[in-house]
């Protein structure tokens, strides 16, 4: 599922869908779900797109075009194209699948794994699929183990000792705990495994229901819990860890604060998510670019980066970068400093700029001497400041500032 608006990411999704937002130095958010599928042995994939899909489609065409149809493998793009009704786009997550039933039929599959395209995690879906088959479930739902106090923000599963879901509760005030574990609850990850024949019939019935919102979490899953067999699958049972990760890692990077934090987490000495694990690679579109370059070695004008990720085609010229993440093609010029900065591709930071605790959108040119992250009141005049105090900078904001002060 790659069609969400991602409105909580504010201006970062003005021109791109949330799954197409850059993450981790050279990847996009959707690369994690796609890489999990590929590494799990899945070779038939489809992405349902809708809002502002161009950059997402272009990324998949460029970075995920290695499937070979003659080997019965492929990645299909399924845009909202009013196939069922000329007045309807995708009305919900379930409707996005329902409107493409004929296409999915043509794949000749027995099981279908439904994924959200906008979360950061590593997971072996084969383990979840095996559980689904062995338990004879109508649906198997991927679940996070979260503290009961935090479960009020999720859709929560009430399960019995065998892991069968007995109730699905949306953001409950008093979340049910896991049997035998009163401190934790099971929260839905939005990952589902179905028998295709079962899901197909369910989707057809849902399409005919005028009172349905045509959403998996709101409509289909509660119906199966009441009338069928729904099983919970704990993320911890299939989370992929390299040995450096101490606990299962899953993040919804749907807000500016969460997006900034998850990127900055990668700069830790031992990050919570190991993206250097070659046994479970995160595949993406790899641009052909030269190596990163660091120049000048004078006091106060030394090109350096400490506890940072610096991608290819970056030039750190006489500037100090610390605890930051620079995507492909960034340029930082003399006497500037960056601390806890996430700079998306092809950002230019001109001389004597001082930046801290900010996210800079792609292709932004930071003017000489700009100071961000030291005065929240001043920052809020020109830029978007999140609840957590992270400053989002776009070129439109800088242009408006330039017009106002000129």
Automatic annotation (TrEMBL):
<keyword id="KW-0067">ATP-binding</keyword>
<dbReference type="Pfam" id="PF24894">
    <property type="entry name" value="Hexapep_GlmU"/>
</dbReference>
<keyword id="KW-0808">Transferase</keyword>
<dbReference type="InterPro" id="IPR029044">
    <property type="entry name" value="Nucleotide-diphossugar_trans"/>
</dbReference>
<dbReference type="InterPro" id="IPR056818">
    <property type="entry name" value="GlmU/GlgC-like_hexapep"/>
</dbReference>
<protein>
    <recommendedName>
        <fullName>Glucose-1-phosphate adenylyltransferase</fullName>
        <ecNumber>2.7.7.27</ecNumber>
    </recommendedName>
</protein>
<comment type="similarity">
    <text>Belongs to the bacterial/plant glucose-1-phosphate adenylyltransferase family.</text>
</comment>
<dbReference type="InterPro" id="IPR005835">
    <property type="entry name" value="NTP_transferase_dom"/>
</dbReference>
<dbReference type="InterPro" id="IPR023049">
    <property type="entry name" value="GlgC_bac"/>
</dbReference>
<dbReference type="GO" id="GO:0005978">
    <property type="term" value="P:glycogen biosynthetic process"/>
</dbReference>
<comment type="function">
    <text>Involved in the biosynthesis of ADP-glucose, a building block required for the elongation reactions to produce glycogen. Catalyzes the reaction between ATP and alpha-D-glucose 1-phosphate (G1P) to produce pyrophosphate and ADP-Glc.</text>
</comment>
<feature type="domain" description="Glucose-1-phosphate adenylyltransferase/Bifunctional protein GlmU-like C-terminal hexapeptide">
    <location>
        <begin position="290"/>
        <end position="393"/>
    </location>
</feature>
<feature type="site" description="Could play a key role in the communication between the regulatory and the substrate sites">
    <location>
        <position position="50"/>
    </location>
</feature>
<dbReference type="InterPro" id="IPR011831">
    <property type="entry name" value="ADP-Glc_PPase"/>
</dbReference>
<feature type="binding site">
    <location>
        <position position="90"/>
    </location>
    <ligand>
        <name>alpha-D-glucose 1-phosphate</name>
    </ligand>
</feature>
<feature type="domain" description="Nucleotidyl transferase">
    <location>
        <begin position="1"/>
        <end position="267"/>
    </location>
</feature>
<comment type="subunit">
    <text>Homotetramer.</text>
</comment>
<comment type="pathway">
    <text>Glycan biosynthesis; glycogen biosynthesis.</text>
</comment>
<dbReference type="GO" id="GO:0008878">
    <property type="term" value="F:glucose-1-phosphate adenylyltransferase activity"/>
</dbReference>
<dbReference type="Pfam" id="PF00483">
    <property type="entry name" value="NTP_transferase"/>
</dbReference>
<keyword id="KW-0321">Glycogen metabolism</keyword>
<feature type="binding site">
    <location>
        <position position="188"/>
    </location>
    <ligand>
        <name>alpha-D-glucose 1-phosphate</name>
    </ligand>
</feature>
<keyword id="KW-0548">Nucleotidyltransferase</keyword>
<keyword id="KW-0547">Nucleotide-binding</keyword>
<feature type="binding site">
    <location>
        <position position="155"/>
    </location>
    <ligand>
        <name>alpha-D-glucose 1-phosphate</name>
    </ligand>
</feature>
<feature type="binding site">
    <location>
        <begin position="170"/>
        <end position="171"/>
    </location>
    <ligand>
        <name>alpha-D-glucose 1-phosphate</name>
    </ligand>
</feature>
<feature type="site" description="Could play a key role in the communication between the regulatory and the substrate sites">
    <location>
        <position position="89"/>
    </location>
</feature>
<keyword id="KW-0119">Carbohydrate metabolism</keyword>
<dbReference type="InterPro" id="IPR005836">
    <property type="entry name" value="ADP_Glu_pyroP_CS"/>
</dbReference>
<dbReference type="InterPro" id="IPR011004">
    <property type="entry name" value="Trimer_LpxA-like_sf"/>
</dbReference>
<dbReference type="GO" id="GO:0005524">
    <property type="term" value="F:ATP binding"/>
</dbReference>
<keyword id="KW-0320">Glycogen biosynthesis</keyword>
């Amino acid at each position: 599922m790659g069609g969400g608006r991602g409105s909580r990411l504010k201006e970062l999704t003005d021109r791109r869908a949330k799954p197409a937002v850059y993450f981790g130095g050279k990847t996009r958010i959707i690369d994690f779900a796609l890489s999990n599928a590929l590494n799990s042995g899945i070779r038939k994939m489809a992405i349902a797109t809708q809002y502002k899909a161009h950059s997402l489609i272009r990324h998949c065409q460029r970075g995920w075009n290695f499937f070979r149809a003659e080997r019965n493998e492929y990645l299909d793009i399924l845009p909202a194209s009013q196939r069922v009704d000329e007045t309807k786009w995708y009305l919900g997550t379930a409707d996005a699948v329902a409107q493409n039933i004929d296409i999915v039929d043509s794949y000749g599959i027995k099981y279908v794994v439904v994924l959200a395209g906008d979360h950061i995690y590593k997971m072996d879906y084969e383990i979840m699929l095996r559980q689904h088959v062995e338990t004879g479930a109508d649906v198997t739902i991927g679940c996070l183990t979260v503290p009961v106090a935090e479960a009020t923000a999720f859709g929560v599963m009430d399960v019995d000792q065998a892991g069968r879901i007995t109730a699905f509760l949306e953001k409950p005030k008093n979340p049910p705990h896991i049997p035998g574990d009163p401190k934790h609850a099971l929260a839905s990850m939005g990952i589902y495994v179905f028998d295709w024949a079962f899901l197909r019939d369910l989707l057809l019935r849902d399409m005919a229901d005028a009172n349905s919102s045509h959403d998996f979490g709101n409509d289909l899953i509660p119906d199966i819990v009441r009338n069928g067999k729904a099983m919970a699958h704990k993320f911890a049972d299939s989370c992929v860890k390299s040995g450096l990760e101490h606990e299962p890692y899953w993040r919804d990077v749907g807000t500016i604060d969460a997006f900034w934090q998850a990127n900055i987490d990668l700069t830790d000495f031992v990050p919570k998510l190991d993206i250097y694990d070659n046994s479970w690679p995160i595949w993406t579109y790899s641009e052909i670019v030269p190596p990163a370059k660091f120049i000048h070695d004078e006091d106060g004008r030394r090109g350096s980066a400490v506890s940072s990720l610096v991608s290819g085609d970056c030039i750190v010229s006489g500037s100090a970068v610390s605890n930051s993440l620079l995507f492909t093609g960034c340029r930082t010029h003399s006497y500037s400093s960056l601390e806890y900065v996430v700079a998306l591709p092809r950002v230019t930071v001109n001389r004597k700029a001082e930046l801290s605790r900010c996210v800079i959108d792609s292709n932004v040119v930071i003017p000489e001497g700009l100071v961000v992250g030291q005065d929240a009141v001043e920052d809020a005049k020109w830029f978007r400041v999140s609840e957590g105090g992270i400053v989002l900078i776009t070129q439109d904001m800088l242009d408006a500032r330039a017009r106002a002060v000129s």
